[in-house]
Structures are given as structure tokens and as C-alpha cells.
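Holo model, aspartic acid. Inputs:
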Amino acid sequence: MSAPAHHLTRQIVIAMLAGMVLGVALNQLGAAAWVQTVLVDGLLKVVGTLFVSALKMMVVPLVFVSLVAGVTALSDLRALGRIGAKALALYLLTTALAVSIALGLAVGVGPGQNFDAGDSPATFSGKDAPPLTQVLIDLVPTNPVAAMAEGNMLQIIVFALLFGVAVTMSGKRGQHVLNLFGDLNTVIMHMVEWIMRLAPYGVFALIARTFASQGLDLLLPLAAYFLTLTAALAVQAFVVYPVLLKSLAGLNPLTFLKKMRDPAAFAFSTASSGATIPVTLHTVEKKMGVHNSVASFSVPLGATINMDGTAMMQGVATVFIANVYGVDLSLTDYLLVVLTATLASVGTAAIPAVGLVTLTMVLGQVGLPVEGIALIIGVDRLLDMMRTTVNVTGDAAVSCIVAKSEHAFDQATFDDPHAGSVEAAIQPATPPHTAA
Ligand code: ASP
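Output:
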């Protein structure tokens, strides 16, 4: 029963590559009108959208149930504060590190120095970020059902935490609720595994459609920006997280990266860390061995506030736009960029393209024109896919480090290359009684 886990990952990778080939071919060869209607805007759109909808369908029930189950599994409620503080500190630290690396690389490479801004007639109007006071006020939902209906992750987290603590403190009666949520968690994870089984089809459709509609020709004039950011993202994924995992938790980074392949493929094809939460949570718990009491909190929190890849994009984009407009940034400006991009990452919603909206905050902070965003918008989808992959990898890495430090980590699961196979998920857990 062990090999199938590999089969699925391999199928997803093949589906991604096949989707890219088909998408680029359609784009370059120019699809006939009927191909566009039937295939790109028909079949691929339906399959891709259904897949993302199915993932999103699971997010709210999964986060709520899993978090209540996680909190009630903690033997000591003080651990909750510790886990929260550690996760928050690591999320902010990794993001600040990410922007600094991105800035350093961008200043070294200097993208945008010979860029002709006249080529881009597009405009961009920014949106103001909510003030910090409002972010704090909004933490407590006035109506938890509305919070769930709107998918407001921070409010759901706050309500689930309080509910979970109350369950723990309600003695014998709370015990029934605790058992119920433990069972619900298993059921919902089972549903997530169904969706993961469908990933090859969903990923194929999403990637093919994206590449069919996003020409690669836009890339050329922005190659310096694109490549600098890609290099920065690669450093974060393949150097920073591995070093942190090894030094802070003594974990083998190669095993970690191998196990990240499924959530990485989901993040890449959906460009949404929010929609990827079910897969990240499944991987972190079932494949990496992070206990539910840590993962159920750190993963949705990370998806909401930890966006290392997005902050990197904001760092490189700031330098690029400054170069295009011939503005010299001072050291204070760079420090401001680190600070604002870190905070902006907290305020960036975990859905496609929002990183560009919060980039207005960063540009505004150092006096750069918001219209500069129009210059990079054309290549943003592909970069969004890549930075979302890094965002999600950061969430998983921090979850592992926090769990290890809290002794809420199963090393045997982490070391087992076949742990967490979802192949069995389409079968009932115990065979139903049949008359035969
Ligand atoms: N798409 C990103 C995410 O969901 C956010 C962004 O950078 O636009 O993580």
C-alpha cells in the first residue's frame, strides 16, 4: 500500500508538465475559435474551476473543525500561547528575512535600469490597506456564522480557539463535544483526500488554461525583474527554509522538500495559499508528522499572515520601479520596505494577485508612484504562482519547527517516505458489512 503515494505525486507532476505544454502550444500556435470555446473556455475552465471550488469548499469546515480538535488535544492550555507566540515570531522573522534577501539581490542585479516605461500604457489604481486599528478590531467576529460565510480566516481562528478552550474547560460534558470534533476531523480529512486524488485532472486544467491565456512574450522586456525574483524565491525555498529546518529543528531538508511536492503543485496551479490550506494541512500532519494541535493552528494562520514569496515580490518590485523612474532609495527607504512588506504580507489575502494590491502600501511608504505596478502586472500571474508556492512552503516549514520544539512531532512519520498516502482514501476505512 505504500507505493501509490508516489504515484499520485508523479501523476501531479506529469499533469503540470503536460498542462504547460498544451497551454504554451495553444498560445503560440493560436487556437482556432472552436478550440478556444470548447477546450480553453469550456472543458479546461469547468474542470479547473470545479477543482478550485472543491478545495475552497473544504477550507472553512476543515479549519474550524481541525482547530477545535487541535486545541482540545492540548493537555496544557498554556501551550496554546507558546505555540502562537512561536509561530507568529517565526512567521514575521522568515518574512523579514525574505524581503531582505530579495532587496539585496535586486539591488545587486538592478532590474529596470534600461527599461522603457513608455512601452506600457496600462494604468493601475491602488486600494488603501485597512489601518492597523481596524485589523485589530476585526479580529473578533461580531457574528461567527458571518465570519465563516465570508471565509474570514482570522475571525474563524479566534472563534475556534475560544470554542476549543471552552470545550476543554467544560469537564465531562465538554468531553462529548471533544469526541465529536475529533471524529468530524477524520471525516473532513477523508473528503480532502478525495480532492487530492483528483489533483492530476484539476492541476492539468488550471495550468493548461493559464498558459494558454498568458503569453510568454510579455516576459522578455521584464526578464531582469522576472529572473531576479525567481532567483530570490529559489533562495528562500532551497536555502533559507532548509537551513532553518536543519538548524532549529534538526530535520532533513531534502525529506521536507520532497514531501512538499503535493502542496507546491496545488499552490502553483491555484496561486492561492488559502485554497491550498486543506492540502498543506494534510501534508504537514499526515506526511510530515506535525501533531494536529500545532498544525491546525499554524497552517491556517500561516496561510493568512505569512507570505514570504509575496514580500519578496514586493521587495524586487520596489527596486525595479525605483530604477525605472530613476529614484534613488536610501538605506532608510530599504528598512522601510522591509518593515512595510512584512506587515503588508500579514494583510495580504491568501488569494491570487492580492500581493500587487498591498504593494501599493510599500510603494507609498517610500514615495514611489503606484502606477509603476502597471509595468509588472503583465507577468504577475506566473510570478504569483511561484510566490504562492514559496508562501505555502514557509507555512509548512514553520509548522514543523514549532511542532518539533513543542514535542508535538512524529519523527517516524517524517522519515517514512510513504506516510500519508491518499490512495486508500477512496476506499471506506472499514469494509461495510455485505450480505455476500
Ligand atoms: N497569491 C498569493 C497567495 O495566495 C498572494 C499574493 O501574493 O498575491 O499566497
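The pocket of aspartic acid is lined by residues 271-274, 307, 310, 348, 350-355, 384, 387-388, 391 (CB under 6 Å). The chain is about 75% helix and 0% strand.
Archived with the compound record.
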